[in-house]
Structure formats: C-alpha cells, structure tokens
Amino acid sequence: MPVEGITKATKSKGVRMIRRHRSHTEGTHTDRPSMSRYRDDVETDGMPSALRDRLYDLFGQIEKEFDTLYTANITLQERVDALNEKIEVSSTSDKQLIDSQDTPDLGSKPKRSASQISQKIKTTYKVSTSKIVSSFRAPTSSFTYVRDYRGHRDGVWEVKLSKSDPHVIGTASADHTARLFSIETGICLLRYTGHQGSVNSIRFHPNKDLVLTGSGDERAHIWSSQVTLPSHGEVVKSHSSGEDDLDGSEKEEMMEDQDQVTDCVTQRSPLMELSGHVGVIIAADWMAGGTQAVTASWDRTAILHDTESGEIINTLTGHDQELTEVEAHPSQRMAVTCSKDTTFRLWDFRAPAMLVNVFQGHTQPVTTAVFASNDRVISGSDDRRAKIWDLRNMRSPIATIQCDSAINRLAVCDATQIIAIPQDNRHVKLCDINGNRIGRLPRSSRQGHTRMVTSVSWAADTSTNLFTCGFDRQVLGWQVWIQPKDKE
After folding, report:
1. What is the pLDDT of residues 71-92, one digit of tens each?
2. If you write DSSP's letter for every residue of 238-307 in order, what string do you get?
3. Which of 45, 361, 454, 472 has the smallest CB count inside 10 Å?
C-alpha cells in the first residue's frame, strides 16, 4: 500500500510525520520511505552538511520510535481482539445455557430477552466484584488526641503502662530521670533520679509495685513504684485554660517550668542495683514471674540477673554488634534481643540447656522485637520494615509491613492485636496482626510529635488507650477506636 508523502506544512516546521501501513496478508511494513527522500528534501533547502547529518539522525530516531509504537499497538490490538472473542463465546454459551433452562422444547420461544440476560450477567459480576473488594477494606477506625504528660527536660526514650496499676504510666528520658504519671489527670506522681546517665528503658514488674530501668551509666536499677493517685479534681494548672493556643516555643517554656508547678515526689536511690556490663545498658526487662531480669548492652552481651540477690545467672553472647533492645515473654521463660548486626535472637530458658534461635530477615539494625499472641514475634528495623514471624516456623516472616521511615520500639495491643509502629519521621502507623494497614495517628502543628517517635504502649479499660513518646520531650495520650470490618 502507498505511503503518504510529507506535507508542506510539516516541512516548513522542520518536522516530518511518517505514516505506516501494515500489509494484511504478510504482516510486514510496505512502501517505507527511504532516507534518500529526506536527503533530497534537505539538500534542496541548502542546509550545511553538519546540520544535515544531524537531521538525518533525528529522522532515524523518529522512525525507530514509530516502529516501536506501531508494533506495540498491533500486539495490543490482537490481544483485545482475542479477549473480545472469548467474551463473545462466553456470552453465547451463557445465553444458550439460560435458554435451555428456560425453554422445555425447541419449539417454544425463550422466556428471557437478550437484554435481560445481559443485565443478569452484569449484576452477577457486580456482586462478585463487590465481595472481593470488601474483603480488602480496612476496619473502621478513629484516632483522638486526649492529653500530654509534661515534665521531662530532654528526649523521652520509652513509655510503658504499669501492670499492677492500670491508671499509671512510666517514662524514661535522656534527662537522667524516670517519671510516673496519672493517666486520667496527667499529673506527675513520682520522679526517680537515681541514675547518672540517660534512662533508656522502663519496665514494670508483672505483679508488684516495682520498676526496672536501664541507663547509660551501665547500671540497671530496681525501685518502688508505689504512688498515691490524685483525685479527679486535681488537674495541673497548665492543662486548664487556653494552652492549645500557644505556639511551640511557649509550650516548651511551660514544660520547663512544670516541675515548679507540680509538687512531685522524688526518689533518689534504688532498692537493687544490677551491674556486670561494661557499656551502656540500652534496655532491661523482667522475666516471666519477676524473679529474674535480663539486661541488654552496647557491650554486645545480655545478662540474666537474679532480682532478689542481684547476682548474675548467665551472660548471653553471640551478637556481633551492639544490642538495641531486649523484650521478655509475658508468660514463658523466653526473651528476644535485638542488635545492630541486623539480627534478633530468641533465648529459650525453659530447657536445662538454653536454646538460641537467630532470626535473619532485615538489612539494617533491628531496633525492636515484641511477643504477640499465637506464638508470633513482630520485629522492626532501620530498614523501614516490620516483619511478623511465627515461632513455629522461623525460616521466613509470614508478613512484612513497609513503612516510610526507620522503626523504633513498637507495641501490640493484647485485646485487639493491633500493632502500633513508631517511626523516625514523627508518624505512628497502625496495622493488624496480619500486616494490613489500618491508619496512622494524626499529626499537625497543634497535636502530634514534632520529632521522631521513640516508643508506644497500649492500655486497656481506659479512655486513653495508646501512649506515645518522642525526642521532642512529649508524652502523648490517644484514644484509638477500631471496629472490625464487616463479615460478608
């Protein structure tokens, strides 16, 4: 088939549009204009040789692009035609099946018209599609900021809920102190000042009024958490009138003056000191039962202590770099340690010979690992991924949660099995136990964190059921409400 020539209008602009036609019999391009056509056109214009050669190259590139596009379009058209044929065959078979069901003999007329059959097919398709889409819908959720808990003068590393008193939370800060707050009023109930370095972790005894803190002074302290809860009428003055209208600098000034406003009980010495490390203790936790504790350090070891005598029971070695976290199982004599060597280890003390399992799945330092129900462990890393593991099959994770930033100390709600993931980018992401995204806590200039969120903790049977802390010195309380998705 002939090829149309180059129009004078496109000639004047220096651009040539090439139209190609495909042979229906051979499936090849025919009557392709040769480069001599372009050469003759250009030579008549009297162009310099260098510019002419450059123009030849441009025409060649345009020609290749049109060839590629034309081939892709033909392939796509063939696929569309094939799909249309399948749809027609399927519609015909469906129509025949419906007609055979509706008509008892060949002599009678069909009871349904073609439009009715088409409408039935469309309705069936819509119903099945809606069921598939609804299975991917996230649960209904709402997140409300409730209050903040003030007093720290430096970044807050961790926040935890008291296990013996569900109305108290504890915080550990780089200002060398740990604090206990009333959940309902936000009042600081107790301040612990026994450490000489940054307080990096705080954990409550499973059933006693005791607290375990780990510090940069290479020591872990056990101290009393007995406090007197205030009445509902006692509210800190700074929480009463118009503080939400203050800008960030004014809020910081009020936070610095908070200790002068609140008469807070101070505790200066521990009941027991746990030693043995030659580096920063980054975290410490109670073992199940509370008679033992495990500490993790930058000296690449973890130590199992007797909490009544303070003696060292066992030193856990194996990590190649500094440890970043330790978490004990709530009911079994097991613990997990995380490290900058991109692994976390499961230590099983239930058997006479201690068992150790190494989990390898992250590409950056592992910063957190916590136990969840159904023998699962959730780990988080600086590689921006949280992974869900099954202790019965530890070769690979059963789900991976992709985040936008490095992950810090996450937490799992016992009641709802919702995972709260704090990140360096100031966000807190919420997912279910299968890794499906639910949402994230709101963040604005008036509420939310302004620096990285370092830790989260869940509570139950309280109006404020999620607590977050960060290196902006803030400890925030949230009300998180999640309704499970409807079952079809």
Report:
1. 888 888 878 877 877 776 666 5
2. GGTSSGGGS-HHHHHHHHHTHHHHS--EEE-S-SEEE---SS-EEEEEEPTTSSEEEEEETTS-EEEEET
3. 45
